[in-house]
Amino acid sequence: MHVHRFERLWLVAALAMIVLFIGTVTYGAVGAGYGMVDDTGGQVDPTDATASENFREPGVYNGSEPGHYDVYIEAKQFLFVPGTSDPVRVPANSTVTFHVTSTDVVHGFEVVGTNINTMAVPGQVATVTVKFDEPGEYGLVCNEYCGSGHHTMEGSLDVVPAAQFNQTEVN
Ligand code: CUA
Prior knowledge:
Strands 1, 2, 3, 5 and 8 form a 5-stranded mixed β-sheet that branches. The chain has a 5-stranded mixed β-sheet with strand order 4-10-9-6-7, with no helix packed on it. Strand 2 (68-76) and strand 3 (79-81) form a beta hairpin. It is an alpha+beta fold and 171 residues long. It folds into 2 domains: 1-35; 39-169, Immunoglobulin-like. The chain is elongated, with a radius of gyration of 21 Å. The protein has 1 helix and 10 strands, in the order αββββββββββ. The termini are far apart. Bound molecules: dinuclear copper ion (CUA). Residues 78, 107, 142, 144-146, 150, 153 line the site of dinuclear copper ion (CUA).
């Protein structure tokens, strides 16, 4: 069978593009350091989140080993607690696990300028673990439309130099 030269060229080009696209999608999913937020954070009663062992009073807690912290964040219309009225403060050079849940509607929890980005779903705790090497200030934003005040729902996260971190802020 004779395949015309241009026909063959287009076949090869189309196949190469398919391989390229599959490659870029695969890289985006697994190659760039992204991790998916799964359901290991467990469930809570959204009307009484702290009653469950999967969630605590919102705030910063010492983690299971030195240099590790657990931060429990409640998202609700239109606040992050903590985060909105007081910044979340953690020391630099620490590993922080955020446990985020919502007590009303679906919200988002994004730490601006990082790859921390999850939904906050009523009844479900999302956990994300991150290492902060350097001091810095980050914004927190809700990126799921959650009602009339959605655009105002924001907060801040301060990663302070370890020497300035006051252990009394930890629960
Ligand atoms: Cu909370 Cu949008």
